[in-house]
Amino acid sequence: MPNDKPLGEIDLECWEQYDDLITDSLWLLGKRDNAGAHAADYWGNFAPQIAHQALRRFTKPGELVIDPFVGYGTTLIEAVRLGRCAIGVDLQPSCVDTARARVAQEAGTSDTRAVALVGDSTRPETAAAVQEVMHQWGFAHAHLLILHPPYHDIIRFSDDPCDLSNAPDLEAFLRGFGQVVGNFAPLLAQGRFLVLVIGDKYARGEWIPLGFQTMEVVRQHGFRLKSICVKDIQENRGKRGQYHLWRYRALKHNFYVFKHEYVMFFEKTTM
């Protein structure tokens, strides 16, 4: 049955004290958190505030979060700070090395564990390796999944053909993304949440609703959609210092410049 009780650290007897937890669907986060081990030096980083909000709303201290697209370790860093355990996976060994180094900078509680693994999240053996770590730590299931995949080919993160950012077309990207969801969904406890951070893209003058397309993929794997939040994008690396250029292009070519991405929340309803 779906869970209608708070999954995180919220005590409803004093719910008014949690004024730093977002409950609206419009997320105006402002400047990203670059404190401590966090840094905005990787194209694939997402705002640490997203992981912070998700971990506090949907996990308790000591519980486990898994991130199959861990990049430089944003989810792991926030998990350690909040006393959660975390397992991250990335295809690129250089990303995993950086994630490990940055997690090592954060001082967690005595029972906090975080590890980054090299692996292809589209392959079942990668999920099996994650499950082995879970069992070593005494977890039968994870309590949260956070997915921040490439936005197809907007940024190519490597030359590896297994990298979803190198998928030859949209259908191949969605198929690969579906494999990731299918591999990791069984590791998540029933009634717990999957968080998808994703944006849309343009291709040949057309707005491609990548967010809603990936949303449907998740729903097909035994999840129900609980919320779609829209997060503002103040400025990304690709458009930094180019406001007037992009405004001119938008006026000339009759389109609107991306200033948002989605944070989607799903509840697992079937095993």
How do you describe this structure in short?
With 271 residues, this protein is an alpha/beta fold. 30% of the residues lie in helices and 22% in strands.
Structural account:
This protein is α/β, with parallel strands linked by helices and 271 residues long. The protein has a single domain (41-268), classed as Vaccinia Virus protein VP39 (Rossmann fold, 3-Layer(aba) Sandwich). It is built from 7 helices and 10 strands. The protein has helices spanning 48-58, 74-81, 93-105, 124-137, 170-184, 210-219, 243-253, and strands at residues 26-27, 64-67, 85-90, 114-118, 142-147, 188-198, 201-203, 206-208, 223-232, 260-268. The protein has an 8-stranded mixed sheet with strand order 1-9-10-6-5-2-3-4, with helices on both faces. Helix 1 packs across helix 2 and helix 5 (170-184) packs parallel to helix 6. It is globular, with a radius of gyration of 18 Å.
From the spread of the alpha carbons, the general shape counts as globular
Over all CA atoms, what is the radius of gyration? 18 Å
CATH architecture: 3-Layer(aba) Sandwich
Broad structural category = alpha/beta
Number of domains: 1
CATH class: Alpha Beta
Q: How confident is the prediction overall: mean pLDDT?
A: 90
Order of helices and strands: EHEHEHEHEHEEEHEHE
Spatial strand sequence of the major β-sheet:
1-9-10-6-5-2-3-4
Might you state the CATH topology name? Rossmann fold
How many helices in DSSP terms?
7
Strand content: 15-25%
The CATH homologous superfamily: Vaccinia Virus protein VP39
Largest sheet: 8 strands, mixed
Alpha carbon gap, first and last residue: 11 Å
